[in-house]
Write a structure and sequence with these properties.
binds 2-phosphoglycolic acid
Length: about 240
Amino acid sequence: MRKKWVMANWKMNGSKEMVDGYISELEQHAWDKHLELVIFPPMIYLQQFAGKNLHIGSQNVSSEPNGAFTGEVSAMMIQELNCEYVLVGHSERRQYFKEDNAIIAKKFHIVKEHGMIPVICIGETLAEYQSGKTRDVLKLQLQSLNKTADFTFKQCIIAYEPAWAIGAGLTPTCHEITQVFEDIKNILHELKLECTDVPMLYGGSVNENNIQMIDSIENCSGVLIGGASLKVKQLLEILKCITCC
Ligand code: PGA
């Protein structure tokens, strides 16, 4: 049976009360044991998941290990809160916080060094999509992670998230996502970073209406969900539609 992931990226949403309600609702439900649900709440709420039987991840991490970096949170700190996963290179971090491929690579490696799984988000902008540059953009984003001799894609997850699909109610077609997953595999091969079992997720406007289509895509190991993960009932609907086989 193949493992799949559903990752809930709350972004900067939620409240202490919302977290309590969300956790207690989840605790009343079960889903396929091959399906791993990972919640990415705002960092300040990670502690509320302590002792709960849920997987958690951080939406961000500092690229530095420690020191005079006011406002930053280190990999060690989030690891101490039992985070198993960290989002790296999300398009909102790239766009609004000007994170470039070099910073993203540092974050990616620091997450790995602390024994957590980086979920490296890659994807093209609308202009890049329209001008047929998707493959080139993805290649550059993946290539820039390869900074060390012993680099490997083991214990990593790749999330393909076209920036133009995020929060937009738009998704690429099934055919386009299939093609991109194929391209990613070939790019890893070209870069000699081949890791045949690197899980690939899709993210961008995933909801209960399109999940079956996305879940049916070959090589799709799950989804990264923003808006539709904020309401726990909607998330549970999505979980019900995923088949692990
Ligand atoms: P969305 O966000 O599901 O609201 O489009 C996805 C993401 O940003 O990871």
